[in-house]
Amino acid sequence: MEVDQAVIVAPQPSSFHYQPLDHSKPSIRFIKVLPQLTADGRIRCEVSHTTTGSEIVYRCLSYQWGEPNAATSREIELNGAPFIVRKNLYDFLRILWSNIGYNTILGTWAAGVWWIDAICIDQRNTLERNHQVSHMGTIYSEAEEVVVWLGLASIAKNKVKNLHDLAPSGSETGGIGSNQRGGTYLHDRRIVGRRVIRNEYWNRAWITQEIALAQSVSVLVDDLLYGFPELVDLLSLLDIPWRHTHFDQFVGIRSGTIDLSKRSLVDLLNHFRNRKCTLPQDRVFSLLSLCSDVNGSIRVDYNMSKDQLANQIM
Length: 314
Prior knowledge:
Blueprint: E1 27-33, E2 44-51, E3 58-62, E4 74-78, E5 81-85, H1 87-98, H2 105-111, E6 113-115, H3 117-120, H4 126-134, H5 136-142, E7 145-149, H6 183-198, H7 207-212, E8 217-221, E9 224-227, H8 228-237, H9 246-255, H10 265-271, H11 282-285, H12 306-313
Parallel strand pairs: 2-4, 3-6, 3-7, 7-8
Antiparallel strand pairs: 1-2, 4-5, 8-9
Helix pairs in contact: 1-2
């Protein structure tokens, strides 16, 4: 059965029950996508427990959750039980599943283990969320790679096989868009490039920490994969203006021209004041692993009111 048939399965309430994490340790969960679908075509995953600092090689996903919408939510199977995920995450899991068994980078990813917050944290358990968010900096910094998922491309894949095809003829990246391709070919790729830098993902509060602390960052659009420096070079070759955008800030962070290591929390809050988050507390919690002046003096507690959190900052 093709995985795409799973979209016709009406999602039911999740019946998966989390086994509690040991909050006396830096305990975390990992997930792995399994090669065999369920009988009705749902993606199957398994979840396991470990601690940060273990020898396990894993990757972290950095992505947009998207709005909660029952009509577009998808049902997967997690350790044999139904589990509901939002569409953007489902699309990523589908990409992983479709690459299982291939001797490619995506095939290697598909065979590996992942930390994905929507699945690896019991989002209904506030104590667990507090525990996991307080370890978020370690989780992302210890990952072998942080993968930025920008979602499915909205231009047909037969038009966009690879952004490498966008480089001007004779360029060092391998001859993107030779003159024989014609203006429409290059125009399509510029559209994709603009959509990359205008993606709402770059406005998220949490990604500042996720990208800044990463050992390595890759960007995935549909099943097209780019290293972050490579993507920056390709966008420049396409003559797509990205300076003074949210994307530009992450170019600076990854290149080292923007140094966050000695910034105070107040300075970081001001610098990233336009970032978007669902919960007001996350504007602060998303920066705690980056600031130089907190050192545990502000605890992650989603039961705190905005006023209580403001008092801790002051």
